[in-house]
Amino acid sequence: MRAVAAIAGLAVALGCSHVDAPPPAAPKGPTACERAADSMVGAMLARLAAADAPTEQADALRRLIRVRCEQDGWSAEATRCLIAMQKLDDAAPCAKLLTEDQQAGLVRDQEASGGAPGSGAPAGGPGDSAGSGQPGGR
């Protein structure tokens, strides 16, 4: 009988105890690098007629930019600048926020993927308003 009373008391105590709920999970959403890549590709595609938009190539370029951004550690200032760009000419000041190595990595990978100017893929990187394939139009 004592065992039953002890179990009942334990059940009541457990039922009345307050267990803190786990903190809510951080909302999932696009990262700064994903948003910067979307903005850059969007600005490039804005220069093309809707019928000419190369969807698969644009997606590949978006992935390439995101990977370079993540792997090369683009600064928050650079990604904010790229996210804010409305047209390709807006990228020139953003290119100055990337190191030469970061810019070179982007151009190298773009050229290696066949996204070099003249290939039919959206060309350029930050600041490539001149279409040279080099950031800053260099």
Kindly describe this structure.
The radius of gyration is 25 Å and the shape is globular. Helices cover 54% and strands 0% of the residues. Mean pLDDT is 74; it is low at 3-18, 116-124 and 127-138. It is an all-alpha fold.
Keywords for this entry:
globular; 138 residues; mainly alpha; disordered C terminus; disordered N terminus
Topology:
Layout: H1 2-16, H2 32-46, H3 55-72, H4 76-84, H5 91-95, H6 100-112
Helix pairs in contact: 2-3, 2-4, 3-6
Radius of gyration: 25 Å
| Count of alpha/pi helices | 6
DSSP strand count:
0
Q: How far is the N terminus from the C terminus?
A: 88 Å
Low-confidence stretches: 3-18, 116-124, 127-138
Name the shape in a single word. Answer: globular
Structural class: mainly alpha
Major sheet characteristics: none
H/E topology pattern: HHHHHH
Percent in helix: 40-55%
Q: Beta-sheet strand percentage?
A: under 5%
Tell me, rounded to a whole number, the average pLDDT. 74
Quick rundown:
With 138 residues, the protein is an all-alpha fold. It has helices spanning 2-16, 32-46, 55-72, 76-84, 91-95, 100-112. 54% of the residues lie in helices and 0% in strands.
